[in-house]
Amino acid sequence: MMFKKIKRIVNELRANQRKLIYAQEQLYASNKLRAILPKAHFIPETGWSMTPKALLHCLNIIQIQKASTIIEFGSGASTIYIAQILKNQGMDARFYSVESDLDWKAAIEKQLEVLGLDAYVTLVHCPIVPVSKELLYKQQQTWYDTKVLSDQIGTVIFDFVLVDGPFGGSTPYARYSAYPFLKDHSHTDTVWFLDDTGRPMEREIIQTWQAESNLNVSLNKRYGVLASATKFDASPYAFE
Q1: Which of 1, 85, 119, 147 has a Cα-to-Cα distance from 24 of 20 to 30 A?
Q2: Helices 102-114 + 77-88 axis angle, to 10
Q3: 94-99 vs 122-125, strand pairing mode
Q4: Do residues 181 and 86 share a domain?
Q5: Residues 23 and 69 in one domain
Q6: Residues 156-211: tens digit of each pLDDT
Q7: What pairing do the DSSP bridges indicate for beta strands 223-227 and 186-195?
Q8: Any idea what DSSP says for residue 89?
């Protein structure tokens, strides 16, 4: 009886320690992100937003890997921080941000204008439509309009792909199609970043991408990174 009680207490202590470490890492990342902006500026963040650590990891990848061609699916805080780091570092890069919601796209455009970042990103409004057979996975029904995407990106080969859209609840496996669609727009050193892999469908998506690409996958608590084994690990500082 006493042994079970001690075991329960130890498990609770370990769980609390993991929560504390997670909170410390998010606070550390928040402070790093705050230092990127040139002045005090409020960026709206909700329960749907990427975590500070995930955002910092993306910026690490862009700067360390010197990514000059970037595309993200799902505009938001990431759009602003990526544009800001491109400006801060004087990087000559092409950055496309794909968004399906016109009102949200307009809100992000306003944020970019206020910060003088509108020249550093091409915001693409791309409706959600029925997905073609060659791009769907299991029960998936919709994805971004590939005609709009193809018209925008042309023959660009991307160094970094950030997938935080479409909204995960829009259809089963909503984000799967990014890899098959962009496979011919990537190279062996392209880094793929999928947010929300703490959810079962997103975790299955990145594992399926790994099987299809033969790249290495690194899973964090809420996101995953797919990259060549030869790429330098750009993970943010860990407190463990």
Answers
A1: 85
A2: 30
A3: parallel
A4: yes
A5: no
A6: 999 999 999 998 888 999 999 999 999 999 999 999 999 999 999 999 999 999 99
A7: antiparallel
A8: T
